[in-house]
Amino acid sequence: MIRILQKHWWVLALRGLVSVTFAAVAFLMPGFTFAVLVTIIGIFLLADGLLATYSGWRLRGEDADWWVAVVEGLLGVGLGVATLVQPEITAALLILFIALWCLITGAFEIALAIRIRKEIENEWQLALAGGISIALGLLMLIQPNAGAVSIAWWIGVYALFFGLLLIGLGLRLRNWAA
After folding, report:
1. Contact between residue 146 and residue 129 where contact means Cβ atoms under 8 Å apart
2. Cα angle, residue 106 at apex, residues 68 and 117 outer, rounded to 5°
3. Is the CB of residue 155 less than 8 Å from the CB of residue 27?
4. With contact defined as beta carbons under 8 Å apart, do 69 and 59 qualify?
5. 9 closest CA partner among 17, 162, 134
6. Up-side HSE of residue 107: CA atoms within 13 Å toward CB?
7. 41, 100, 108, 145: least surrounded by Cβ within 10 Å?
């Protein structure tokens, strides 16, 4: 499994870059109307889901649990498409979807970090990304009535840390392969 991750280190780094780019938009333009925020979130979920699905699919034949990454990715794709097709989804429902996505993605990331801990150093980066995902999901479940600007900031902070950790892990995998 580690060989596939090393070979496709750029997918993790690209997921991180997409996440950091999204964070920059969330920080620089928090006053976006909710409709625009919904569209940006939909694009982010779709892009991240496609990249996660690709990563999982590439693990086919190398790892018996390849389907876990595919399920994570397909969940992101499904939420992204649903968000883009039905932008009038209520804020509460969108927040619930994002919170659930964060919780499930975080659990998958922690599980993967545990699985690869003996194969790679500093797997804590992936586990920390999972912990941040879970923390944001819980925060959004606890405070669902926060304003759109607050949500943009919460998601921006999450996306920034998540992205930086994935970029770091991707680069570490690239260097480790060398």
Report:
1. no
2. 75
3. no
4. yes
5. 17
6. 10
7. 145
Distance, in Å, from the CA atom of 176 to the CA atom of 6, rounded to the nearest integer, reads 8
151 and 95 Cβ atoms separated by less than 8 Å: yes
Question: Which DSSP symbol is given to 88?
Answer: T
Q: Please, what is the angle between helix 91-116 and helix 66-85, to 10°?
A: 160
CA 9 to CA 31: how far, in whole Å? Answer: 35
